[in-house]
Amino acid sequence: MMNTPENTLYIRMGGEATLQKLVTLFYDKVAKHPDLAPIFPDDLTLTAEKQYKFLSQFFGGPPLYSQEYGHPMLRARHLPFEITPTRAKAWLACMHETLDQMELDKQVKDEMLSRFTTTAYHMMNTPE
């Protein structure tokens, strides 16, 4: 399916409200995950805000992250954190569980998971 400004994944997923819910549910899981919590701050407020802004543009919505922080440079920004294959899988498991909680069209969910999977494995920077 070709994305047009009216048909981006951001729009098809439900836009701002859906993305806010996704980020909230997701970081509730991250905060409790034994493999992920050690590399995240205790207060996830700013992290969740940045994730929301990034995902907005990642899925074709407003470029909120770039407007505030410049180019995302995902890999470079994640280099200070030890992202192992186990952590990438844990991150994806939390996201998969979050998406399962959301009332999303299966095609939209599958498209989101595909993009998350590619990105999560691209962020790995440390062997086990």
UniProtKB/TrEMBL annotation:
Question: Which keywords has UniProt assigned to this entry?
Answer: Heme, Iron, Metal-binding, Transport
Q: Does the keyword Metal-binding apply?
A: yes
Q: Which SUPFAM superfamilies match?
A: Globin-like
- Pfam families linked: Bac_globin (PF01152)
Signal peptide span? none
Per the record, the domain of life is Bacteria
Give the matching Gene3D superfamilies. Answer: Globins
Family, as annotated? Belongs to the truncated hemoglobin family. Group II subfamily.
Its recorded name reads Hemoglobin
Source organism:
Caldalkalibacillus horti
